[in-house]
Amino acid sequence: MTDTRPSEQHIVFGAGLIGCYLGGVLTTLGFSTGLVCRPSVKSKLKSGIKLTDYQDRQTKALKVDAISSESPSTEVLPIKQADFLWLTVKCTGIEQAIVDITPWVNKGTVILCCQNGLGSDAGVKQAFPDNIVLRVMVPFNVVELSPGHYHRGSEGDMTIEHTDSTFELVNSLLAKLNSELLPIKTTNDMHGLLWAKLQLNLGNSVNALADIPVKAMLEQRAYRKVIALLMQELLVVTDGLGLKLPKITALPAHLIPKVLGLPNFIFTRLANKMLEIDPNVRSSMWWDVSQGKPTEIEHINGAILKHAKGLNIVCPANEKISLLIRQLSSEADVPVEQRPPIAAETLLAWVTQK
Predict the structure, then answer these.
(1) Of the CATH numbers 3.40.50.720, 3.90.170.10, 3.40.1080.10, 1.10.10.10, which one belongs to the domain with range 9-188?
(2) CB atoms near residue 298 (< 10 Å)
(3) Residue 240: enclosing H or E segment and its boundaries?
(4) Among 56, 1, 54, 61, which residue's Cα sits nearest to residue 25?
(5) Of 185, 236, 276, 295, whose CB neighbour count within 10 A is largest?
(6) What contacts 11, CB < 8 A, 6 or more positions away?
(7) What is the pLDDT along the chain (354 residues), one digit of tens a residue?
């Protein structure tokens, strides 16, 4: 019998929530896939992996090749080097990951950077100048409903960038990976797309401070007003940079802050797509703050502030939110009223205080 399984070898490095979901999809599609993950995650995957999404689709893989990130050299690896290496660590882990992925990278390995925010791919390109390094935009959230059960809780197509020279490569990959559980698109304007995604990611820090699920946060107008202020500042910066943001939601970028500020009874009618989120979903920054880990604030709100400074634009809302998150991450002596959970009206009053 002819073996019809895909021949490409994949490594998902830094398999947390997004990485496990991606690795699970690759495995169920028949790719030889290794998931490099923390020992605690490896333990959860001993009985396989289950994938579900917000539209009640599901699949299972009874066997997953999981590799402990703490002792990869002592394990029998599913592959020494990868055709495709998916880098799914957070921005804060890129520097160490560049060192740790070396055993799996050869001159033909394509490295796909799946980070939030801006600029994290630069170090990867510098470290691997002879490799193809592509950016990937992941618009959806993933939650772990039980050990080994990863649930995509919101809509959106994973998008892989392509250049003229990588067009055929990326589209060939898309044809093999695109599926109901992992819809994929390509773009030749990843810079604009990442700025558009950055606009949506501005809710991450607010979610970390609210300390409630994303859907519950969006149901409260004062939280939405804070996010709207952050977005309005971003749009001033993108205007200053001459960027036109591509549309990645049902609403154009410039209308999203206006809709967020609407009274609840109007918002719930006009923005029903925004509320089509699994009630368990929380932002990745909430996970970091709740576990006392470094956050991606410098690559999200901080990226706006960096570009704003070069344009002599002030962004007070982003400055205040960034300050709060930095203080929480550094275990500074933060007043009780500025520690999560921060009530919606309290946070709005603090952010708008002159």
Answers:
(1) 3.40.50.720
(2) 19
(3) helix 221-241
(4) 61
(5) 295
(6) 33, 34, 36, 79, 82, 84, 85, 86, 101, 104
(7) 344 446 789 999 999 999 999 999 999 999 999 999 999 999 999 999 999 998 999 999 999 999 988 765 555 454 568 999 999 999 989 999 999 999 999 999 999 999 988 888 999 999 999 999 999 999 988 989 999 999 998 888 999 999 999 999 999 999 999 999 999 999 999 999 999 999 999 999 999 999 999 999 999 999 999 999 999 999 999 999 999 999 888 889 999 999 999 999 999 988 887 888 888 889 989 989 988 889 999 999 999 999 999 999 999 999 999 999 999 877 667 777 778 999 999 999 999 997
Token pair 């962004």: residue: 315
Report d(CA 77, CA 261) in Å as an integer.
51
Sheet of 49-53, strand order = 58-61, 49-53, 149-152, 142-146
Note if the bond before 341 is cis, omega within 30 degrees: yes
Q: Which fold has domain 194-352?
A: N-(1-d-carboxylethyl)-l-norvaline Dehydrogenase; domain 2 (1.10.1040)
Q: Where are the domains of the chain?
A: 9-188, 194-352
Q: How many CA atoms lie within 13 A of 271 on its CB side?
A: 25
Q: Are strands 9-13 and 84-87 parallel, antiparallel or unpaired?
A: parallel
